[in-house]
């Protein structure tokens, strides 16, 4: 059996998934993983537990058994939350064999051996039926398949397959929905991460300026996300050009489509300037009412002293293909394009 391992492509900067054989040294993957960061994310864990308890209660109130499917279980934490919340049975799927082996031991040591079955497979290989990996379809879908970009770890195709083959129609989902937000800004600092500015050098005959060729200046390159801690970005390093707007939402309790698509919103700049950067982040509602919310919003959007430090989820910087001058009050259209694993943006005049 082969296992998927994440790799950053040095040419494009994008995360790619490679298959490794059984004899591959997985210890380096564990060393690079962020399990510890996720496990110590108190805000994330508390919100997931609240959402799972609420979902189990809703299923029980309908007089049904609570059968949970946990995709990407990792250490088994979310499955154990479900079992302790009263779920009748949990199927915990983990494709990474060393982690699946660890999950089996953790589940047993916590006394949930009879309530949780760890399945060491990719979710698309899981079978359902009397002789299958799962005896029946689940009515509660629990996942943590998200990265800073939300979809970079293959969340959309995984959800799409799960709704077709692994869960009941109208199932409960934790999280229930995700919403992606964007904001248009001008920032010389961030723009310099994507462009070559003129370089001043001292020569024997005076100062010289090295300018990049026009072919390089006009080539936007391959679109890719730059994920950073925006909460560490001083407010003086960027100028806000638009309000925060909702780019799109995904309801995980309903069938999900992973096919490439685009979303478009209209923006009315609050200030004139050079549109260079799209800042983006997301939040997840753990329940249908939106009362249990886990957000990645930066400090200038949700000002609070209780920020949860995270390295496994941060915020996104997207570079527009070219800087576009915008005028205050003159409407523009921002388009987000996505495939199964990544997103990119473009700006057009209305």
Automatic annotation (TrEMBL):
One of its GO terms (biological process) is methylation. CDD domains: AdoMet_MTases. InterPro entries: Arg_MeTrfase (IPR025799), PRMT_dom (IPR055135), SAM-dependent_MTases_sf (IPR029063). PROSITE patterns: SAM_MT_PRMT. The keyword Membrane does not apply. Keywords: Methyltransferase, S-adenosyl-L-methionine, Transferase. The keyword S-adenosyl-L-methionine applies. GO terms for molecular function: histone methyltransferase activity; protein-arginine N-methyltransferase activity. Pfam families: PrmA, PRMT_C. Residues 176-348 form the Protein arginine N-methyltransferase domain. This is ANM7 methyltransferase. It comes from Anhinga rufa (African darter).
């Amino acid at each position: 059996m082969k296992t998927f391992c994440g790799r950053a492509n040095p040419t494009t900067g994008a995360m790619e998934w490679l298959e490794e054989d059984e004899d591959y040294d997985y210890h380096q993957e564990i060393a690079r993983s962020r399990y510890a960061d996720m496990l110590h994310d108190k805000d994330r864990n508390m919100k997931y537990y609240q959402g799972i308890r609420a979902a189990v209660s809703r299923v029980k109130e309908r007089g049904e058994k609570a059968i949970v499917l946990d995709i990407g279980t990792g250490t088994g934490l979310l499955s154990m939350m479900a079992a302790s919340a009263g779920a009748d049975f949990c199927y915990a799927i983990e494709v990474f064999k060393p982690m699946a082996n660890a999950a089996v031991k953790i589940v047993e040591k916590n006394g949930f051996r009879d309530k949780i079955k760890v399945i060491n497979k990719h979710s698309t290989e899981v079978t359902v039926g009397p002789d299958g990996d799962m005896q029946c379809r689940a009515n509660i879908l629990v996942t943590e398949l998200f990265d800073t970009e939300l979809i970079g770890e293959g969340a959309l195709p995984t959800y799409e397959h799960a709704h077709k083959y692994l869960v009941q129609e109208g199932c409960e989902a934790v999280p229930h929905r995700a919403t992606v937000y964007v904001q248009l800004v001008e920032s010389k600092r961030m723009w310099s991460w994507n462009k070559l500015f003129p370089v001043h050098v001292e020569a024997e005959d005076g100062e010289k300026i090295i300018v990049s060729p026009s072919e390089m200046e006009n080539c936007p390159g391959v679109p890719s996300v730059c994920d950073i801690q925006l909460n560490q970005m001083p407010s003086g390093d960027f100028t806000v050009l638009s309000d925060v707007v909702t780019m799109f939402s995904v309801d995980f309790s309903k069938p999900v489509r992973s096919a490439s698509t685009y979303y478009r919103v209209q923006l009315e700049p609050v200030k004139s300037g050079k549109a260079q950067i799209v800042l983006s982040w997301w939040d997840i509602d753990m329940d249908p009412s939106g009362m249990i919310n886990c957000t990645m919003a930066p400090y200038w959007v949700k000002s609070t002293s209780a920020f949860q430090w995270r390295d496994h989820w941060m915020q996104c910087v997207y570079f527009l293909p070219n800087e576009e001058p915008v005028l205050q009050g003159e409407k523009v259209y921002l388009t987000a394009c996505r495939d199964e694993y990544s997103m990119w943006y473009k700006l057009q005049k209305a």
